[in-house]
Design goal:
The complex is a heterodimer of chains A (463) and B (365). With 463 residues, chain A is of the alpha/beta class. Chain A is 28% helix and 23% strand. Chain A has two domains: 298 residues, FAD/NAD(P)-binding domain (3-Layer(bba) Sandwich); 148 residues, Alpha-Beta Complex (Flavocytochrome C3, Chain A, domain 1), CATH 3.90.700.10. In chain A, strands 1, 2, 6, 7, 8, 9, 18 and 19 form an eight-stranded mixed sheet that branches. In chain A, strands 10, 12, 13, 14, 15 and 16 form a six-stranded mixed sheet that branches. Chain A is elongated, with a radius of gyration of 23 Å. The two termini of chain A are 30 Å apart. In chain B, α8 runs parallel beside α14. The longest helix of chain B has 29 residues. Chain B is elongated, with a radius of gyration of 22 Å. The N and C termini of chain B lie far apart (50 Å). Classes of the chains: A alpha/beta (463), B mainly alpha (365). At the A-B interface, α4 of A face α1 and α4 of B. Bound molecules: flavin-adenine dinucleotide and iron/sulfur cluster (2 copies). The site of flavin-adenine dinucleotide has 44 residues of chain A, from α1, β3, β7, α6 and β16. Chain A: InterPro entries: CobZ (IPR012831), FAD-dep_OxRdtase_2_FAD-bd (IPR003953), FAD-oxidoreductase_2 (IPR050315), FAD/NAD-bd_sf (IPR036188), Succ_DH/fumarate_Rdtase_cat_sf (IPR027477). Chain A: Keywords: FAD, Flavoprotein, Oxidoreductase. Chain A: Its cofactor is FAD. Chain A: This is FAD-dependent tricarballylate dehydrogenase TcuA. Chain A: It holds the Pfam family FAD_binding_2.
């Protein structure tokens, strides 16, 4: 094992949003900082490079945000999605701090743009990054380089060496070469563990092997596992992950945003056996997309099939892969590997249950089926106009909940008390606040707020 | 340098593949006019791609911001994909096409033409030397120059007009209103899109760092060129309307417009050429790199030789410098339809066409 020649004030594990916020903050406070990014340069930035916005409290219009979004409303939105599984004190702290994140991000090179087309509902609550998360990550890496922060790519941290209430060094592999890295303080910001399918399978069951991972293949939770094995306190449901229904043809890893499908409200969704299993029109899509990952995951082979007809094909955002297309329902079934008779039966039953009435694609129109075991309660129009289209759906994992428990100063704790020179930020500790569910844009908020706190605390510790 | 690799698949097919991915993503919406225009359709006809490609000015912001660039299997490279479609559209719509293919791709062809033009003017100066005349008209009579340059200017313009008509048809441009022209000229005059959507410019010469240099050098070039053009035009007016013939003194419109214009063009050309050597050729249409570079150098030489000619007033160098200058101007004029020079026409046409299209839907949930 070789030794990194220098001893740093702070070594930051990870190279995504939380890591960069911590590193920049500490370097600006005068600390000598090293970033250890497990991925190669081309894939730097973890899941942060796939993001598009962060959720930001604000009292009045503030570019690019419209209107106002104040603490109470923000906190209520969080309560709603987490069903109360949050730490109110930490959550309110993050919400309040989010307001000053926006100017901080701008002064460190991040640029914003008005809410993207198709996401108008978020223009008040979420600030969109110009160019998306990779542009944000690039801006932070430029800032980091200007501040003289050392950056190592392909630098996988394998073990965080703990000696009582202190961390002494990291065992890493840098470009395949085992290397010891010494520093006086450490920030862990290595994200979740969603890329470790074995871990997911242990937690969720073998079905998890059929899940697609929407983000980076480099977030394998190695550091999280290592810390848990060493008795660090944990938080968040170990058996759960946040999954949405995405295009079944997406790559196994790193498909990112484009693989999402917004067609469900205008379709019927059947399983492998050609049967419907849930109300596709329960609510508007932004409020329902998050449950469909789970719904599909519970079906045989973890797969679903959305079937639409010509009337609805232009009602939703374009998909990255063109849909399967056929002139008959049977033809579509055959192309998608479904039993034609079964699909025909389901479609006929559904069509017969549809009622006449006005159809409004952009609002809850109450156009519902009558007499079905699994009703469709809005946008229920018969699937009867050729050509017919189909999309295969699979669960795509976005986020894991199990993480390190931290206090308001981002410090990591063992059963005996705080580990004096160790802090955590980002998804690796997000379970403290986001116990279940998901609030769009909150992952980046948690990472920015706690990254900055961790950087400050670490710099103060070594000063 | 000229990279002579033909693209492996039709540029339209590759651009279509990439645009469909962008259309499902849209993260780059704020960078430039391309992405909002893209959201108008779900499927892209060849004409749609021609339109989008001519709205793109190769700032590369959307390349460095993209999470799907190689080694990702989606292999996005929008600046290159659109540059290929753009270069292809200028070639396809030019007449004759073969000339465009030759001069767009091969800087050496442009140099060869310059040598021919030079030889022609040395011959003309020797053979057609007038009996009388002042300044450079002592070397080549005004009427002879007019006889050469008016057709050499108007014929290429006529060819470009024909190409633009086809272009308009291909991109489905509608009826042009004054307000469309106004919007387009306004955008072009400020090079609005070159600001990158955040006022910090392009990602051109230093990977993902933003810089306004490209816009500044392009401004110098464009306004310098317009000043030189105005200088020539004012000379023509003075010649015919006021019978005031060249040479003109320093305090006269042709010189007051031409000297700063020439200096701006030289600085602009030097800057643009330098930036081009710094920028990654893989993010543009690599096969036309040589032609583009030669075109920048040609513009620079037009200005430089013009200035030199003025500086040499009264010396024995006027003759040879005049031949060189006129040769560069002739090549510039003749190659207008077949070189990067057409980009100005197409870009303006694209902005006008865009102003006339229905506003992008802006989606809606
Ligand atoms: C497709 C997609 C879209 C999303 N969109 C949004 C959005 O718009 N807004 C939002 O708020 N959230 C979004 N999220 C969630 C968001 O990505 C995460 O909450 C956030 O990026 C977490 O930031 P982080 O810095 O903690 O982790 P990451 O950005 O994932 O960074 C983790 C880093 O650690 C490195 N690493 C991992 N293991 C090791 C190791 N052993 N040694 C060294 N380095 C290691 C990784 O390479 C990576 O650089 C999205 C997620 C996905 C998948
Ligand atoms: S270039 Fe990449 S990031 Fe930008 S819109 Fe296209 S796919 Fe999205
Ligand atoms: S290169 Fe620049 S101008 Fe061209 S599409 Fe990308 S962002 Fe727009």
């Amino acid at each position: 094992m070789t030794r990194w020649p220098e001893v740093f004030d702070l070594a930051v594990v990870g190279g995504g949003n939380a890591a960069l916020c911590a590193a920049i903050t500490a370097a600006e406070a005068g600390a000598k900082v090293l970033i250890l990014e497990g991925a190669p340069l081309a894939y730097r930035g973890g899941n942060s490079r796939h993001t598009r916005n962060f959720r930001c409290m604000h009292r009045g219009p503030m570019f690019p945000l419209t209107g106002a979004y104040e603490e109470e409303e923000y906190f209520n939105d969080l309560l709603l999605v987490t069903k109360g599984k949050t730490d109110e004190h930490l959550a309110r702290m993050v919400i309040r701090a989010s307001e000053e994140c926006l100017p901080w991000m701008q002064s460190h090179g991040v640029r914003f743009q008005p809410s993207l087309s198709g996401t108008l509902s978020l223009s008040r609550t979420n600030a969109f990054f110009l160019g998306g998360g990779k542009a944000l990550v690039n801006a932070y890496y430029r800032t980091a380089a200007d501040l003289g922060i050392a950056i190592a790519y392909e630098a996988q941290v394998i073990h965080v060496h703990r000696d009582g209430d202190r961390i002494t060094h990291l065992e890493t592999e840098i470009a395949g070469q085992p290397t010891t890295v010494r520093a006086r303080a450490f920030v862990l910001a290595s994200g979740g563990f969603q890329a470790d399918l074995d871990w997911l399978a242990r937690a969720w069951g073998p079905a998890a092997r059929n899940f697609l991972i929407r983000g980076t293949p480099y977030n394998r939770g190695v550091v999280l596992r290592d810390m848990l094995d060493q008795g660090a306190e944990s938080v968040g449901d170990p058996t759960q992950c946040h999954a949405v229904a995405i295009d079944g043809r997406a790559p196994k890893y790193d498909g990112g945003i484009v693989t999402r499908l917004d067609c469900v409200p205008f379709s019927i969704v059947v399983n492998r056996d050609g049967d419907r299993f849930y109300d596709e029109g329960e609510d508007v899509w932004p409020k329902r997309y998050a449950i469909w990952g789970r719904l599909v995951a519970a079906q045989p082979d973890q797969v679903g099939y959305a079937i639409i007809d010509h009337k609805s094909i232009d009602l939703f955002m374009p998909s990255v892969f063109p849909p399967v297309k056929a002139d008959t329902i049977e033809g579509l079934a055959t192309q998608m590997g479904l039993d034609p008779t079964a699909l025909r039966r389901t479609v006929d039953g559904f069509n017969a249950a549809c009622q006449p009435g006005p159809f409004h694609p952009t609002e809850l129109d109450g156009l519902r089926t009558q007499g079905l075991n699994v009703p469709k309660t809005n946008w229920a129009r018969p699937i009867d106009t050729a050509p017919f289209y189909g999309y295969q759906l699979r669960p795509g994992v976005t986020f894991t909940y199990l993480g390190l428990k931290v206090d308001t100063r981002a410090q990591v704790h063992a059963a005996e008390g705080p580990i004096r020179n160790l802090w955590a930020a980002g998804e690796i500790m997000a379970g403290s606040i986001l116990g279940q569910g998901y609030l769009a844009g909150f992952g980046m908020t948690i990472g920015t707020v706690f990254g900055r706190i961790a950087g400050q605390e670490a710099a103060a510790h070594v000063a | 340098m000229s990279l002579d690799m033909p693209p492996k698949i039709a540029p339209q097919a590759e651009a279509r593949r990439q645009m469909e991915i962008c259309n499902a993503c849209r993260y780059c919406e704020g960078f430039c006019a391309v992405f909002p225009a893209m959201t108008r359709q779900k499927a892209f006809a060849d004409g749609d791609l021609t339109h989008l490609a001519n709205l793109c000015h190769n700032c590369r912001g959307c390349y460095y911001a993209c999470q799907y660039t190689e080694p990702h299997e989606f292999a996005l490279n929008i600046p290159a994909a659109l540059a290929e479609v753009r270069a292809d559209s200028w070639e396809r719509l030019a007449r004759p096409r073969a000339l465009a293919r030759l001069f767009q791709t091969h800087g050496t062809a442009m140099a060869a033409l310059a040598v021919v033009a030079l030889a022609f003017f040395f011959w003309a100066l020797a053979a057609l030397r007038p009996a009388e005349g002042a300044g450079f008209y002592a070397h080549l009579a005004h009427n002879t120059m007019i006889a050469i340059f008016i057709p050499a200017f108007l014929a290429p313009l006529a060819l470009i007009a024909l190409s633009l008509r086809d272009y308009w048809h291909e991109v489905g441009g509608g009826r042009i209103r004054l307000s469309h022209l106004f919007q387009a000229l306004h955008a072009a005059a400020r090079m609005k899109n070159l600001s990158g959507g955040h006022g910090e410019g392009c990602n051109f010469e230093d990977a993902d760092r933003f810089s306004d240099r490209r816009r500044q050098f392009h401004h110098l070039m464009m306004y310098g060129f317009l000043l030189c053009f105005a200088s020539t035009a004012s000379g023509t007016v003075m010649h015919y309307a006021f019978a005031w013939e060249a040479p003109y003194p320093l305090w006269s419109p042709p010189k007051l417009l031409g000297i700063p214009g020439g200096l701006m063009m030289v600085a602009g050309a030097a800057g643009l050429a330098w930036l081009k050597t710094k920028a990654d050729p893989a993010l543009g249409a690599a096969r036309v790199w040589g032609g583009e570079m030669a075109f920048i150098l040609l513009l620079g030489s037009v200005a430089l030789t013009g200035l030199a000619l003025y500086a040499a007033t009264g010396t024995g160098l006027v003759g040879p410098l005049l031949a060189i200058h006129l040769a560069t101007v002739l090549v510039l004029f003749l190659l207008m339809p077949f070189s990067k020079m057409v980009h100005g026409f197409y870009r303006l046409a694209a902005l006008v066409a865009e102003a006339g299209k229905p506003a992008p839907a802006g989606g809606g949930e």
